[in-house]
From TrEMBL:
<keyword id="KW-0479">Metal-binding</keyword>
<dbReference type="InterPro" id="IPR013785">
    <property type="entry name" value="Aldolase_TIM"/>
</dbReference>
<feature type="binding site">
    <location>
        <position position="205"/>
    </location>
    <ligand>
        <name>Zn(2+) 1</name>
    </ligand>
</feature>
<dbReference type="InterPro" id="IPR050246">
    <property type="entry name" value="Class_II_FBP_aldolase"/>
</dbReference>
<dbReference type="GO" id="GO:0008270">
    <property type="term" value="F:zinc ion binding"/>
</dbReference>
<feature type="binding site">
    <location>
        <begin position="206"/>
        <end position="208"/>
    </location>
    <ligand>
        <name>dihydroxyacetone phosphate</name>
    </ligand>
</feature>
<feature type="binding site">
    <location>
        <begin position="227"/>
        <end position="230"/>
    </location>
    <ligand>
        <name>dihydroxyacetone phosphate</name>
    </ligand>
</feature>
<protein>
    <submittedName>
        <fullName>Tagatose-bisphosphate aldolase</fullName>
        <ecNumber>4.1.2.40</ecNumber>
    </submittedName>
</protein>
<feature type="binding site">
    <location>
        <position position="134"/>
    </location>
    <ligand>
        <name>Zn(2+) 2</name>
    </ligand>
</feature>
<feature type="active site" description="Proton donor">
    <location>
        <position position="82"/>
    </location>
</feature>
<dbReference type="GO" id="GO:0009025">
    <property type="term" value="F:tagatose-bisphosphate aldolase activity"/>
</dbReference>
<feature type="binding site">
    <location>
        <position position="104"/>
    </location>
    <ligand>
        <name>Zn(2+) 2</name>
    </ligand>
</feature>
<feature type="binding site">
    <location>
        <position position="176"/>
    </location>
    <ligand>
        <name>Zn(2+) 1</name>
    </ligand>
</feature>
<feature type="binding site">
    <location>
        <position position="83"/>
    </location>
    <ligand>
        <name>Zn(2+) 1</name>
    </ligand>
</feature>
<dbReference type="InterPro" id="IPR000771">
    <property type="entry name" value="FBA_II"/>
</dbReference>
<keyword id="KW-0456">Lyase</keyword>
<feature type="binding site">
    <location>
        <position position="177"/>
    </location>
    <ligand>
        <name>dihydroxyacetone phosphate</name>
    </ligand>
</feature>
Length: 280
């Protein structure tokens, strides 16, 4: 299949009143496992990669590998740059052929975030790529707690009126890394966003560790993309830590099998949360 941007995936999610799983890919083996999971489920998926991972493996090499997986899948797979904190890196990805980029200007003053996102959006439109942005700030382990800023409705409305991105990540209480208690997640806040911006696909960052019953309510409230990274890394390290005596190839085979099983489970559960879900 040709490379697809996020528009096809978000159109599907909106029509299904569902959410698409988005997995952060740190190694090719994990990417292969996720692509196999998408084919097994016949469901769309995002393969996401950060600038830090691209710096390790090489931008062109790793993108080409993920693009190959997407093009040889029977499902819609969108390869997306995740959490680009610099305009230049988002522009570099678009110039290389990334069909979708996520620019994270949430650490910047509002107006600067808007200006930078607009610059990226203008470039993306020229190459038929899609853009995800973030308003509010989703907390990351190690940051001062006061850095977390829940998204305000007026900011989301103002941002989308000036900078109509294809997906908007909002901060409603989840955190990057393994999540805290469900009580920290402000579902009513998200419902308000969805009521006032019904055509905007909202993105949940920090999806690892969110219980299914909470995920279901978040999907009902307008989440159309769920980001997961930490749980994949836990699978990797837990397998390595518990199988010191195995041959390396056996450990890798088990990591890939566990990753595929986890991804299939999450994708199927997200789909079953949809009011329009059929068997999968």
């Amino acid at each position: 299949m040709p490379l697809v941007n996020a528009q096809a995936l978000m159109t599907w999610a909106i029509s299904q009143e569902s959410a698409v799983a988005a997995f952060n890919i740190d190694t090719l083996e994990v990417g292969v496992a996720i692509a196999r999971a998408a084919d097994a489920c016949h469901l769309p998926v995002f393969l996401q990669v950060t600038t830090a991972t691209l710096d390790i493996w090489g931008w062109e090499l790793f993108f080409d590998q993920l693009a190959y997986l997407a093009q040889h899948s029977s499902s819609d797979i969108c390869v997306q740059l995740d959490h680009a904190a610099e305009v230049s890196k988002a522009q570099r990805a678009l110039g290389m052929g990334f069909p979708s980029v996520m620019y994270d200007g949430s650490h910047l003053p509002f107006d600067e975030n808007v200006r930078n996102t607009l610059t990226i959006l203008q470039t993306a439109r020229q190459v038929h790529a899609t853009v995800e942005a973030e308003i509010g700030h989703v907390y990351r382990a190690g940051e001062p707690p006061e850095w977390q800023a829940l998204t305000r409705l007026e900011d989301a409305q103002r941002f989308m009126s000036v900078c109509p991105v294809d997906m908007l990540a909002v901060s409603v209480g989840t955190v990057h890394g393994q999540n805290r208690t469900p009580q920290d997640i402000d579902i009513e806040r998200l419902k308000t966003f969805h009521q006032h911006l019904p055509d905007t696909p909202f993105v949940l960052h920090g999806g690892s560790g969110v219980p299914d019953e909470v995920l279901s309510r978040l999907v009902d409230a307008g989440i159309r993309k769920v980001n997961v990274g930490t749980e994949l890394r836990r699978i990797w390290w837990n397998r390595i830590d518990s199988h010191h005596g195995q041959k390396p190839r056996e450990v890798m085979k088990n990591i890939m099998a566990d990753t595929q099983q986890f991804a299939e489970g999450l994708m199927r559960r997200l789909h079953r949360m949809s009011a329009a879900a059929g068997p999968v």
